[in-house]
Structures are given as C-alpha cells and as structure tokens.
Amino acid sequence: MEPPPDLATLSLTDIARLLAEKRLPPVEKWNPEHCGDSDMRIARDGTWFHQGSPIGREAMVRLFSTILRREPDGSHVLVTPVEKLSIAVEDAPFVAVEMKSEGTGQDRAIAFRLNTGDIVAAGPDHALTVRDGETGPHPYLHVRGGMEALVARSVYYELVNLALDEGGERVGLWSGGTFFPLDGAA
C-alpha cells in the first residue's frame, strides 16, 4: 500500500480529488458466513492489536481498515468475499489525528486525516457530532457505513478554537455547507 498523503501539503481541492479517486472494497456487498473471531482489537486510542500485541506495520493496519465493516447490531467485522471475522472495537474504529481548514463561516471546508491515513472531509455525509461522556465531551466524525472516528482531543481543541475565533451565536463550525455544533448541546 502507498503511504498516506501529508495533509499539511494538500489544498482542499487536492483533498477533494483524492477522495473522488479513493476506491474501497465493496464490503457492504459481501455476505459470507461468520467464520469466528479474528483475535483482533482496536483500542480507544486507535491502536490495532492481534492476539494481545500491537500491530506495528502501518500498512497492515491500513489494509485491515479497508475491509472493516459495522454490522446492523453495532458489532464490527473484517469481511472478504469468503469470510467474516469479528473484531473488538473499544470506542470508534478510527481516530481523527489531524485536520486542515480553509475558508471561514459558511464557506469553510474541513478535512481530517485518520490514524489509518484515510482523509475524510466533514460535510452532509460526514457529520461531526459531540456526545457527552463521563469524562467530558467526546467528538466523533462519521467515516463510512455507520463507522466513526473519535476526534483526538488536540484536534477537537483546534476546532473549538476556530469556532470561538469566529464568534458565532453557537460554538460550532461550518464545513461542506453544513453547520456542526461543537458544544455537545442538542
């Protein structure tokens, strides 16, 4: 697999082009019988484990992430045309570790790089949400197929600082023509 692109060197136009070119396996069309457990786990911090040991090869993690699917019951599986294996996910299967923002107000566009190297642009199909948890607000970005990325705390602080600098009535940001509140209030 190719190494992921450096988000800082890309314009949002470049990012949009890369997203349009991105081809993922059609996991939503594959329905093999469940074969068992993968002995894999994705920790809250985004680290992938196999049989209790971290997977050190980033290319392997990126490859596995392309065949990850969320089932209707909320569980996660690794799926190919011929097998389906359970995988434990502690929180969200991805972590948004970096962001890039261009524009202001309703013209703003925000893209995120995930721990797997994928890039996701926030907008109507990729909502930013904030849910209150025991340890405070937990920001998430919808990635695909019901799967989310936990937005890293440092990235969340960047988002909130941008929103506060804009000084709107509500703490939040626009991206892709959609407003996303960042204060966790409904």
UniProtKB/TrEMBL annotation:
Domain DUF1285, first and last residues per copy: 25-92, 93-182
Top-level taxon of the source organism: Bacteria
InterPro entries: DUF1285, DUF1285_beta_roll_sf, DUF1285_C, DUF1285_N
Database matches in Pfam families: DUF1285_C, DUF1285_N
Protein name (database record): Proteophosphoglycan
Provenance organism: Sphingobium cloacae
